[in-house]
Specification:
The complex is a heterodimer of chains A (about 270) and B (about 325).
Chain A: H1 3-17, H2 20-47, H3 55-67, H4 78-86, H5 89-93, H6 99-132, H7 146-177, H8 181-195, H9 209-212, H10 222-229, H11 234-265
Helix pairs in contact in A: 1-6, 2-3, 2-6, 3-6, 3-10, 6-7, 7-8, 7-10, 7-11
Chain B: E1 2-17, H1 21-30, E2 33-48, E3 52-56, H2 63-70, E4 78-83, H3 92-96, E5 99-103, H4 115-125, H5 130-143, H6 159-171, E6 177-181, H7 189-206, E7 209-213, H8 217-223, E8 226-231, E9 234-240, H9 241-248, E10 252-258, E11 270-276, E12 279-284, H10 291-301, E13 304-310, H11 314-324
Classes of the chains: A mainly alpha (about 270), B alpha/beta (about 325).
The structure holds adenosine-5'-triphosphate and magnesium ion.
Magnesium ion (MG) binds near residues 63, 64 and 181 of chain B.
Chain lengths: ~270, ~325
Amino acid sequence: MLRPYLAVLSARFQLVLQYRAAALAGFATQCWWGGMKVLIYSAFYAGARAAPMSFAHTVSYTWLGQAFLMFLPWYADPEVADMVRTGAVAYERLRPVDAWGWWYARALAWTAARIAPRAGLMFVTAAVIMPLVGLGRWGLRLPADGAAVALFCAAILAAALLSATMTVLLNVVVAASLTDRGANAFAAPISIVLSGSLVPLAFFPHAFVPFLRLQPFAGLIDTPFRVWNGELAGLNAVGAIGLQLAWTLVLGILGRCAVESVMSRVQVQGG
Amino acid sequence: MAQVVVEGLRKTYRVAVREPGAWGAIRGLARRRWREIEALAGVSFAIGTGELVGFIGPNGAGKSTTIKILSGILRPSGGACEVDGLVPWRDRIRHVARIGVVFGQRTQLWWDLPVIDGFDLLRDIYRVDPARYRRTRDELVGLMRLGPLLDQPVRQLSLGQRMRCEIAAAMLHEPRLLFLDEPTIGLDAPAKLAVRELVGTLNRERGVTVVLTTHDMQDIEALARRVIVIGKGVILADEPLDAFRAGVLAERRVVADFAGEAPRIAIPGVEERAREGRSLELAFDPARIAAPALIAAIAADYPLEDIRVVQPQIEEVIARFYDLHGAGEA
Ligand SMILES: Nc1ncnc2c1ncn2[C@@H]1O[C@H](COP(=O)(O)OP(=O)(O)OP(=O)(O)O)[C@@H](O)[C@H]1O
Ligand SMILES: [Mg+2]
């Protein structure tokens, strides 16, 4: 049943993993931004009387945010955008596979393959090397116990599944408009702010926070990192993961309807 | 038994009209204007199992549009079409699992993957049984001489090498029906021969039905027994290649070699078509003079050394046909 999807998932994962230069460059930029943010937060915490999160939690949240930055649906799958532009998307219709599942498997592989090396490096840097060289105060703190680690893994997995549904939705917009400009222009600012990547959602005005945590982008960054920090534990964490999965389902169904209707209308270019 | 049935197929593309200049672009943002292009205006034909049909016509005639509809990736604006009892665009997934398609201008293999990995991926996409896949793959690799290419990423292949891989890729799941849209475009002579040989073999030995579009009339001559000619979205001819040729050019040809400079020949109903040193190409109207009588007449009056009956070049036939039907480029 799943054979075509797993095959394309693993092929794409391996391909993207080969782009080592891109991963290293990305890692370097993310270290830089992580360092800047941590510096800004230390200045802020030095003067602040009441902060919504402890300094240690904010710093961990920041490093994790850099490690998992690729969960943000910045842009549509470049491979799909390319195919739409050149008309190669025709071949997509020639495969005996469900169009949504096909793009979903690829989006998931693409996200995972960009995250795996960066998250690994970031973890070693912020959680191992920084404490060793005496920068522990500004480094990544580990979760309190094994249960938190297990819940965090579940939340990260859910975030990956959720992120891929968003990428597919962007693909659909690209396929419908025949260009990736429109979709990519609005995706980045919205997702950076609403996920908690710019600043943790807890820093937003009090009245908004509960609502911000209900919207789907929170599931990409805010939810898993609060699980890591132990702010969400036990049943609360399970509920938050449930919300991530519920959004995954909703956006997945939405995407599937959209893919079918767009792809049956999309006029294959050229030939 | 007809494997492909097409009836009254129509396709109208809607394209946005862009007005010139910056002001036009701004106005276009507010209100788009559309223009309709009728690519297919009621196309009907039927193709039986095991046939090899040449689907030809000038640029913009609607060949690729037809192939796209038949292969399930484009929805027509009207008309009906069934392939093996399935409606391609409605039963897309089941339909595409049974056909093979090659668009000469595109690649269906993953650009960055070695050829063999791309094949393996197709095996999983089409859910082919692994043992069966290995057998088919090895056969195709032998037939298309792909052995040395298998480890190279697709992007490193030359056009001809890639096209051989593409055709093999389209056959890995053993489809009974193959659509080839300009499979020989841009290939050099040996690569074209290889492609023709493969397509011919698949059709003859495996009974694969083939629909082939091309602008290379040698492809048609080498492979097709039947041609369907389309122009401006309508079928202009659909008959066996020989009948088509005879219908377009009623004249027949002989090439005669003489001892010494080829002479001027004045026989009623005979015209000179080409001369080259000692040889002469003559066209004659079989209704006015029969071939044996013509040969006898030439031999009687001139120092004839050799004579052979030839067929007009297919390119010439097609060009003449397009002229007759005013089917030049749309
Ligand atoms: N996606 C599209 N949008 C708008 N018009 C199109 C589109 N695709 C094809 N057309 C138009 O439809 C007509 C038929 O095109 P088609 O590609 O089927 O021709 P063809 O017979 O394959 O020509 P060629 O020999 O040049 O490949 C042409 O006039 C073409 O401009
Ligand atoms: Mg074409």
